[in-house]
Amino acid sequence: MNTVEMKYGKEKISINLEGAKSVSILNERPMDEIKDLKKAFKKGITTEVINSKPLNEIINEDDKVTIVISDLTRFWQRQDLICEQLVNYLIGELKVKHENIVVVVALGSHRKQSEEELCKLASKSVYDKVKIVNHDCDADDLVNVGTTPSGTEVYVNPLVVGRKVIMITGTVHHIMAGFGGGRKSIIPGVAGRQTIRQNHIQSLSKTEKRSDPLVGARLLTHNPINEDMNEAAKFIDVAFGINIVVNSSSKHSKLICGDFHDAWLKSCKYVDDAYGLRIKKEADIVIASCGGYPKDINLYQSTKSLFNATRAVKKGGALILLAECSEGGGAPDFFNWIDPLKRGVLDEELRASFTIGGYIFYAACESISKCNVYMLSSIDPDMVKDMKITASSNIEDLLNKINCKNKDIYVIPYGGNVVPLLEED
């Protein structure tokens, strides 16, 4: 295989790998795709529930019901289609009054969604029937439901207290919590800002200037972020969980429903079986695409591909990341941390003023330190040089820097999806 074609922005780039010792393509395993969503949803909440009664034995017609869904940054899971099925079922079959149903968008500390966005997130049908609200992590009426063993004071939206709560979440690998979805809809989803900070700062080692080694994609056992989230979730009486898994085309592959924790754990295994790809050894060179626009719209969005791709390259090897970054570095909460990096105080300042975007920047710098990172990008090369990234808008320039001759190369067409797993680990 001399040439590979990969997505870059809204285009495709051909890359000549002539002379390489070996070229292996790393793709996720083929996944099922739901053909009849209504049928799959009905099975998921009735005959195929995990460690739970079916939904119709949990919700009564006089209950006040809160449905929690994710915000626009996670719209890839298309929870609007599931939310529509759920509300139709609650009102049409269980006879729950529409005025007793409220949909809460689990923003965490993200920006408020517009009315147009709320309609998109929950579906027009749901928007026209029931109340839809943004969570506000700085609201005055947040409820203190307890303190976790690690000391996180858990303040949550009052709409998830004293009501029947149904969580709709999407499960993916996650750089901090091991896997997204499930209990992440509580922290950070519907939690207070200080609660989020107290939980997320546990991603940093207590004894060294580095991330806690127990924090990372796939890691659940002893992961302090995950375990603290699980403890916080115990304070919320979640009646039912609906976990969405999608394929790389954002088509629904599986709905795993039932007990909030147990059904989510099963969805994690399903995700890992599909996207966790075992490799026998690390390669000399890894060439990874984010999957094109909008996955490579900025550097912040591109970091997931960076994290995954560096797992597959030898220490001191080379990574070429295809990330156009048409909007530059991304949100200020991410890229403004370049200044403390330049001053050599990134660790100290992040611990003093922890933010999620800041930690993603911090973790990106850690991943980059493993190998030589080159980025095919429209970003200004001077913007990323202090991160130890060599950027160019010309693929030939980058290929000339790494020399593919007699090298083992991995090609990852969808870097944000595939999580390479070294067999010896």
UniProtKB/TrEMBL annotation:
One of its Pfam families is Lar_N
Q: Write out the GO MF terms.
A: ATP binding; lactate racemase activity
Query: Which EC class does it fall in?
Result: isomerase
* Name of the protein in its database record: Lactate racemase
Alphabetically list the UniProt keywords: ATP-binding, Isomerase, Nucleotide-binding
Gene responsible for this protein: larA_1
Q: Which domain of life is it from?
A: Bacteria
Please report the stretch or stretches of sequence annotated as the LarA-like N-terminal domain.
8-209
Record InterPro entries: LarA-like (IPR048068), LarA-like_C (IPR043166), LarA-like_N (IPR018657), LarA_C (IPR048520), Ni_dep_LarA (IPR047926)
Q: What is its EC number?
A: 5.1.2.1
Lactate racemase C-terminal domain segment(s): 280-418
